[in-house]
Amino acid sequence: MSASHHDPLSHPEVQLASGRGYVANFLVTTLLMGFGLWLSVTHAVAPLTLVAVTSGIAAVAVGVQAYLLLHMNLSEAQIWHTVAMILFLPLFVVTIGLTAWMFHGLYARTMIMSPHIGAFLHR
Amino acid sequence: MVIGQTVKKWLRFTYGIPMLFLNGCAHSGLLLLEPRGLLSDTAVHYFTLDVGIMLLIIVPTALLAIWAMWRYRRGGRGAYRPDWSHSGRIELVVWGIPLVTVAVLSYLSIKAIYELNPYNPTILARTHKAAGRPLRVDVIATDWRWLFIYPRQHIASVNELVVPVHRPIRFRLTSTSVVNDFLIPQLVGMIDVMPGMRVKEAMVVNKPGHYLGFSADYSGAGLSWMHFDTHAVSVAQFRRFVAAARSSGRGLTDTGFNRFARPFIAVGGARQVFGRVQQGLFGHVVREVMRGKVWRTPMDMTENMVRYMKQQRAEQNAGEY
Amino acid sequence: MSVMSRSENARSLGLWDRDHEGHDVIGTRTFGFWLYMLTDAMVYAALFATFGVLSHVVNLAGGPSPAAVVHPVYAYGETVALFVSVLAYGGAMVALKAGNKAALIGALGAAMVAGGVFLGLAYSDIERLFHAGIVPQASGYLSIFFGLILYHALHILVGMVWMLVMIVQVMTRGFTSNVVYRLINLRLFWHFQAVIWVFVFTFVYLQGTVL
Amino acid sequence: MGRLSLRQIPYQNPILVGTFVFALILGAAIVGLVTYHKRWGVLWREWLTTVDHKKIGVMYCLIGLVMLFRGFIDALMIRTQQAIAVGPHSPGYLGALHGYLTPFHAGQIFTAHGLIMVVFAATPLLVGLMNIIVPLQIGARDMAYPYLNALGLWLTAAGAALVMVSLFIGNFAHGGWYGFVPYFELPYSPGVGVDYWLWAFQLSVLGTTLGSINLIATIVKMRAPGMTWMRMPIFTWASLSANLIALTTFPVLMVCLALLASDRYFGTHFYTAGMGGNLMLYNDLFWVWGHPEVYFLILPAFGMMSEIVPTFSEKTLFGYATMVIASFAIGGVSWGVWLHHFFTMAAAPSVNSFYSVTTMLVGIPTGVKVFNWIFTMYRGRVRFELPMMWAVLSLFLLLVGGLTGMMNAFATNDYMWHNGVFVVAHFHLMVLLIAASIFGSVEYWFPKVFGFKLEARWGKAFFWCIVLGTGWVFIPMFLLGFAGMTRRLDYIPYTQWGPYLRVMLVGMGFYILAVAFFFMHLYVSLRDRAKNRVGADAWGTSRSLEWMTHSPVPAYNFAFVPQVHARDEWAWRKEQGVADLKSGPYRDIHMPGNTGVPFVLGALALALAFALTWRIWWLSGLALALCVAVVIVRAFAEDTDTVISAQDVERAERRYHDGEVVPMEEPMGRPTPRPAT
User: Fold this and answer.
1) Model ipTM?
2) Which residue from C32, C41, D78, D274 lies 20 to 30 Å from B155 (Cα-Cα)?
3) Cβ of residue C10 closer than 8 Å to a chain B Cβ
4) Cβ neighbours of residue C1 under 8 Å, at least 6 residues apart?
């Protein structure tokens, strides 16, 4: 509880900072998001393709951020951070994925679509 | 599944034991184990298999545990080997037995789920090809009564379900306010009855008789009195019921239903029959709820309910029920 | 082997760590905070699961469709503001590595300003919607739409307050180990908001145009 | 004052007035005793402001025990009500139509019973035991974040206090501990009961999440030198897997409850039936948490059994690696089974099949554990002392609970009794398994924490009454399950259920005896503590690191941090003949200093939750602002450590070696400003 005799600035987590990485991250993610924006406002692709492509873009952007911003790597200082995140990833997928699956089926089985509400289907 | 059959027979026998114990009379009250419908029969069939297979594992395990404790108790006969802590062969068996059991049970479970799928029970299609056109019944759960609408007959009945035997019944169910759970222990399993949604259930009664039905999910103060009677009758008797309802009962319109659905604790029963039910009432109720229609629970059925209950008590004592 | 020699053998391995230094305080603190951030990510996962369930057509309840609610170009402005703020915080971390107090305070200030711009943009966007009668009470979809963006905005607000506290602490305390671990935690917190925003922007705004 | 007024105090209800008088007398007695013995200072300095993991653990356990008692009283009321209110001709008292509870009151009681038992009894007891034992087992001097540890405790305490306050001001939720939607929405539950439930639950969520972060970080970062992963004691492994579950699932519950709060307070439509809400979403989010939560409770219980069984079999645990894998397999699979809590939702058969199979998969690692305990006893020398008796009871409860669990996992069985009392009986056996493990480990670790063993005679009477009570209550309940009886009835419409319900009263009688014997057990043990004093290794055959320091454990845990050489380090040292605790010359030990901030934050959180419940907006705002302010001010406190000087350590160690009992609350260490950096 008293590690104060070490210089805190020499701690590996301080030394992780990399100006070049942060700038690269800024450029890449801003451009990726810009590309997604361009796709959606110009309606350049079909809706389903848009969903797929933008999801892909988001995945790439988050990957870049995880590596360059959050410094997810296997170095000794960061390994437990990375392990913890890898542990959570499947749980995010499970929570969202299984929920979506269940409710997709439930809507089909229990909802009576009246014409009144159906009118919004393709708006 | 020869083993399954044997196990089943044996288990049927063991059901008797607790019955003998507790009240010795012919009717033990263990409703779930006395199925009188096609679906409940099937469910009990799989239940028996499941329990049998599990007991094949659990009983020897329990005996093993008792044996180990007895033999290796301090001062017992077992040889003390403090350093023994691993055996690959035992580990294999220890993982293997549960794995195989779960595999078998999973197979059975999936088979049962499809056979008893409330929307389309395959067991019904397989065994009831020539049973004729199914009877449609729309069920609406209110706070705290059950309304059974017979859409083709344009009649409805409150807290009393009358159905012909051997003919498939197709239910559509919804609720006006909160989630209920539709259950007739001897005939059909539970299904959630949800407001703003429509679920389906199917049922075939094998024996004429009088069966109890319950609301299983908690729905508020009137839950305990939200039970209903199911009368499984012959075709002729069912026709008489329909005719009697048509001639005597009052009508039920969409606006009339709005009044009917107000919270009411059905102490002492709430039987009622409606002769002319507006067409499409079920769909109307579902849509109304989806649009946000709410039948609020007044404070005197929650916080201040002592007075309400006292009043009901007085009415009960006065013989009004 | 006799008992005596066995115990000597064991003793020679060293039974007690007489020079126990304590653990790495900064590393332990940031690890715990990272676990906390992951729980926050789980909160977002649950919110996104809710969003997935409540963006079916019946959840509009006859109200405005997602395409009529979202404004992706505007949201891209928020995106850039947030990414600039994150970049500025990165600058603060570089300054910390160099031990440069003034640069660190300046970069934190810049990150706060950019965060403020993000909040301002978000505020005017929500204001616009409220004026059009598009409120969380109107439908299930709108409830979770506002739920998501308001929860994210709340994080930005908290982050800005935290930055203010850190500016004061850096000025008064200098780079003590407590201040340093808090700066690293704030880095995790702030950079994490950018990650979450990528999801919000993509799933709520971009894909909202075709729902 | 928002909705709060004097009318909200239920003085017309004789049951509540009686409870209030009882609480008043008890409170007065405690205040009187503390004042008489002049212990207010000690209470504040050494307990309320402590950051010592052992004292925090003890306080967690105390909260758990008090709430366990409250939950038991609720159970007693449910059982008597159901035994009386059978059929239309049954008598009614106190304004109730049948029995003595109105439906609204009965609803509050079973809601409180469930919430209290799961969240405010089992959870604090387990968290408390993990708090005490885990740092000792890994050779740490404290938790990774002692201050956070205290905060978690006081948030949990605030939640428990809020539940108790609801007894006397207003009312509690009345629809089941896990809440029903849309029943818990404003139109159907217009009172404050649901709000009490919401905020009490939410406070405990916050406390438990913080606690889980703390335990995980402690285990990952604070192990003694030489303690590799595969040398970690099995209880620590179990705590790790349990807390991973808590860490990952509690946030989902937080969302689940927050969305309900939003519906109630802001009129949004997350869970409403109409207006585009989805009421099943509540069940989905709740059980995403709810099912793993069950394993959050049961994994530490398994861990406790895995500590007790080897100790009293005088033998190493069979299949250590398998046990670890099984714990994590249970934790992992528990994340994919939640729909089995609403199998009857009318989901597609493919969905139900998936969840039925995943649920059964849990049975595999659980079965492995059972076999491993049996093979631990095999070739051992089993001693049936009290902890072992509880562990054996747990084992058999697990067998029955496992059988019935597999029955429930079979989806079509579940259709038969989903909301029936069969399920109630099943999970009560599982929770009783947890309770039995807890009682076993309280017996087991009590001497470690307090320096003397609990006496055995009353303890055995207590044990056998629990066994008899359990049989007498839950066998009829299983039969009632087959009789089709549904849950949460305040009136029994079907008279054939009556005899079973009356038989259960006999079991409740045994439980009442058990509670009485438990108090006797504590009293006699305390009275005869001098007779039952023990040294470091209370049972003589324990194996893990916590038995390598003095009993009661000194504030600094270990005078020197141990070097770990083997899986069962203490057993290894005894075998090698180096089981000697004398290890001078001593050094200064840096420890975290006590602080009142967590207590203050807990009090503020209670004020905030109370104000939100009653919609007293000014108080909510004030409490929230004060919370933020206190956190910020605390961030500026730098000198939070104390130092226990080498002389103090030496003096204390000598006293321990002389066999003197050093009381837990004796202050050690003094705040020393650290050198400026």
Assistant:
1) 0.93
2) D274
3) no
4) none
Distance CA D342, CA B213 (A): 20
Interface of D with A in 182-221 (CB under 8 A): 220-221
Q: Looking at the domain assignment, is residue C142 inside a domain? A: yes
Q: What is the pTM for the complete model shown?
A: 0.94
> Of A51-55, A114-118, D383-387, D443-447, where does mean pLDDT reach its minimum?
A114-118
Please give the Cα distance from B247 to B274 (Å, whole number). 9
What is the domain extent for residue C169? 77-211
Q: Please tell me which residue of chain A has the smallest CA distance to D337.
A: A98
pLDDT at position A118 over 60: no
For the cut 50, the answer to whether the pLDDT of residue B67 exceeds it is yes
Gap between the Cα atoms of D479 and D412, Å rounded: 18
CATH fold label, B133-295+305-318: Immunoglobulin-like (2.60.40)
| B198 → chain D, closest CA residue | D346
| Chain D positions in Cβ-Cβ contact with residue C31 (cut-off 8 Å) | 217, 220-221
Q: Residue C54: helix, strand or coil by DSSP? A: coil
Task: Give bridge partners of residue B201 from the DSSP assignment.
Answer: B171
- The answer to whether residues D555 and D663 touch, using CB atoms and an 8 Å cutoff, is no
**Distance in angstroms (rounded) separating the CA atoms of residues D112 and D106:** 10
Overall CATH class of domain D314-535: mainly alpha
Q: Give me the residues of B, 245-264, that contact D with CB < 8 A.
A: none
What whole-number percentage of chain B has pLDDT above 90? 73
Shortest Cα distance, chain D CAs vs residue B267, angstroms: 9
Using a CB-CB distance cutoff of 8 angstroms, which residues of chain B are in contact with residue D89?
none
Yes or no, beta carbons of B199 and A110 under 8 Å apart = yes
Q: Which of B27, B45, B95, B142 to mutate to test the interface with D (most CBs of D within 10 A)?
A: B95
Q: Is the pLDDT of residue D283 over 50?
A: yes
Taking the C-alpha atoms of residue D175 and residue D110, their distance in angstroms, rounded to an integer, is 8
The letter for the amino acid at B128 is H
- Please state the domain extents for chain D: 1-82+112-277, 314-535, 553-595+637-677
Q: How far apart are CA D458 and CA D438, in angstroms?
A: 17
Q: Which of D141, D248, D284 sits opposite A88 (nearest CB)?
A: D248
Give CATH 2.60.40.420 domain extents, chain B. 133-295+305-318
Q: Decide if C9 is inside a domain.
A: no
What is the chain B residue with the closest CA to C138?
B292
pLDDT at D270: 96
Share above pLDDT 70 across residues of chain D, in percent, rounded to a whole number: 97
CATH number at residue C130: 1.20.120.80
- Average the pLDDT over D124-149 and give the result: 95
B197 touching A, CB under 8 A? yes
D1-82+112-277 matches D314-535 in fold: yes
Contact D578 C46 (CB under 8 A): no
| The token pair that represents D665 in the structure block | 């609350």
DSSP D547: G
Q: Is the pLDDT of residue D591 over 50?
A: yes
What is the rounded CA–CA span in Å between residue C177 and residue C174?
9
Alpha-carbon distance A64 to nearest alpha carbon in chain D (angstroms): 24
Nearest-Cα distance to chain A for D489, in Å, is: 28
Chain C: touching chains (3 or more CB pairs < 8 Å) = A, B, D
Residues B247-259 have a mean pLDDT of 90
pLDDT digits (tens, 9 = 90+) for C38-87: 999 999 999 999 999 999 989 998 889 999 999 999 999 999 999 999 99
The per-residue pLDDT for B5 is: 58
| Interface residue D82 vs chain B (CB under 8 A) | no
Label residue C1 by pLDDT band (50, 70, 90).
very low
CATH superfamily of D1-82+112-277: Cytochrome c oxidase-like, subunit I domain (1.20.210.10)
* pLDDT tens per residue across span B108-159: 999 999 999 999 999 888 876 656 789 999 999 999 999 999 999 999 999 9
What pLDDT score was predicted for residue B10?
53
* Composition of chain D by helix, strand, coil, percent to 5: 70, 5, 30
